[in-house]
Amino acid sequence: MASAAITLAADAPTLSSANTGFMLICSALVMLMTPGLAFFYGGMVRVKSTLNMLMMSFISLGIVTILWVLYGFSLAFGTDSGSLIGWNSDWVGLSNIGLTELWDGYTIPIFVFLVFQLMFAIITPALISGALADRVKFSAWALFVALWATVVYFPVAHWVWGAGGWAFELGVIDFAGGTAVHINAGAAALGVILVIGKRVGFKKDPMRPHSLPLVMLGAGLLWFGWFGFNAGSWLGNDDGVGALMFVNTQVATAAAMLAWLVYEKIRHGAFTTLGAASGAVAGLVAITPAGGAVSPLGAIAVGAIAGLLCAMAVGLKYKFGYDDSLDVVGVHLVGGVVGSLLIGFFATGKGQSDVAGVFYGDHKFDQLWKQCAGVFAVLAYSLIVSAILAFILDKTIGMRVSEDEEVAGIDQAEHAETAYDFSGAGGGAARNTAVPTPVAGAASKKVDA
C-alpha cells in the first residue's frame, strides 16, 4: 500500500514552468487576435462605419472578461450537470482558486487555463459582428454580446470541451474551436441577420472595402495570433501534438489562400488582396478543429477544400438574399463545418488520439457521424437561440439605427467620431480645436471653437 501511494505521488502532475510560460504567451497571442479581427473587419467596411466596426470587436474584450470572471468560467468548465452545463460555486468571482492549483490533469495552474479560454470566449461574439456591419445600435450590440455569451457560448463550450459535456463524451473532435467558436459564431450571425434584415442599398449601392491595407494587416495579425489559438489548445507540447498543430496551421492556411486565389482568378479574372486575406482566414478556420488529428498532407487537403468552398459560399448571400456584410457565414460557418466534417475523412489516428477517419480507419464512418452530430447540433442551437435573442432585443430596445443614421454613417450616429479627418481637427467630434489668438503681453491665448 505504501509503495502504491509513493508511485501515485510520483505520477501526479506537477507545475511546469515551461508549459505555464508557453500558455501565457499563447493567451496573449489569442488576445491579439481580437484587435486583429477589428482591423480586418474595419478595413472591409465603408469609411463611415470603420470605428463602429472596430468598437464592436473591442467591446467584447470588456464585457466577456467581466462575465467570465463572475460566472462564465464556472458555466463552461465547472462540474457537469446533465451533460449540458457546468457549475462550480468556488469559481464564481475566481476568489477561491489557489495560485498554484493545477488544471485537471495538466501541469499549468487553473488561472493560466482560464485566461487562455477567456480569450476564446472574447473573440467568438466579436466574430459575429462582421455580419451586422453598418446597421446595429452599439448599445443593442453590447447587450446582445452579454446575453449571447451567457446562453450560447458558455453552454456550447461546456458541451465541446467540458468534462461531462455531451459532445465531449460522445467523442466529437474539436481541437481548438471549429464547433464551439466558428460554427457557433457563423450560425449566430445568420440567425441575427435573418431577424434584423438587410442594409440600406444592399445589392444596389457599391459597398467596397475602404482600406485593403488595413484588411491585410488584420489578416496578418489573425494568422500570427492563430498559432497561439491552435497550438496552445493542447495545453503544452510534451508529446509533440502542439507542434503538429502549429505546422498544420501554417500549411492549411497557405493551401486555402492559394485555392481561393485560383478560384477567384478563374471566376473573376484577378488575384485580389481581399481574396488572399479571406482565403487565409478560411484556412485558419478549417484547420482549427482538425489540425491535431490530420497529417500535414491532410492539412493541405483541408485547407484547399475549405478555401475553394468558402470562396464559392460567399456569393450565396446574393442568391438567397441575406445580407452577411463581411461574409461571416461564408467563411466562419462554412469553414468551420468543412474543417469539422473532414476530420471524419482525414484523421490519421496518429495525432491527438488513435481515432481514424474514413481514409485511414477500420471503422470507416464512426468518427464522421460523431462529427456530424456535433456540427449540426451546435449550428441549430446557435442559429435558433441567436435569432430569438435578436428578435427580443429588436422588439424591445430596437436593434437597428434609423435609416437616416445608417445612410449618413453609423460612426457619427453611435460614436460621435470619424475614422479619418483631413481637416486637422482630429477624429473626435466632441473634441474642440484650440485656436491661437494674439494677445498683448502674451504669445497666444486659447479660445474654444
UniProtKB/TrEMBL annotation:
Compartments, record wording: Cell membrane
Keyword Transmembrane helix: yes
Top-rank taxon, per record: Bacteria
UniProtKB keywords: Ammonia transport, Cell membrane, Membrane, Transmembrane, Transmembrane helix, Transport
Alphabetical list of Pfam families matching this protein: Ammonium_transp
Ammonium transporter AmtB-like domain span: 22-420
Major localization class: membrane
GO molecular function: ammonium channel activity
The UniProt record lists the keyword Transport: yes
Residue ranges, annotated region (Disordered): 427-449
GO CC list: plasma membrane
InterPro entries according to UniProt: Ammonium/urea_transptr, Ammonium_transpt, Ammonium_transpt_CS, NH4_transpt_AmtB-like_dom
Transmembrane segments: 20-41, 53-77, 106-128, 140-161, 181-200, 212-229, 241-263, 270-291, 297-316, 328-348, 368-393
Membrane-related topology note: Multi-pass membrane protein
Function: Involved in the uptake of ammonium/ammonia (NH(4)(+)/NH(3)).
Quaternary structure note: Homotrimer.
Family membership: Belongs to the ammonia transporter channel (TC 1.A.11.2) family.
Protein name (Swiss-Prot/TrEMBL): Ammonium transporter
Organism per entry: Streptomyces aurantiogriseus
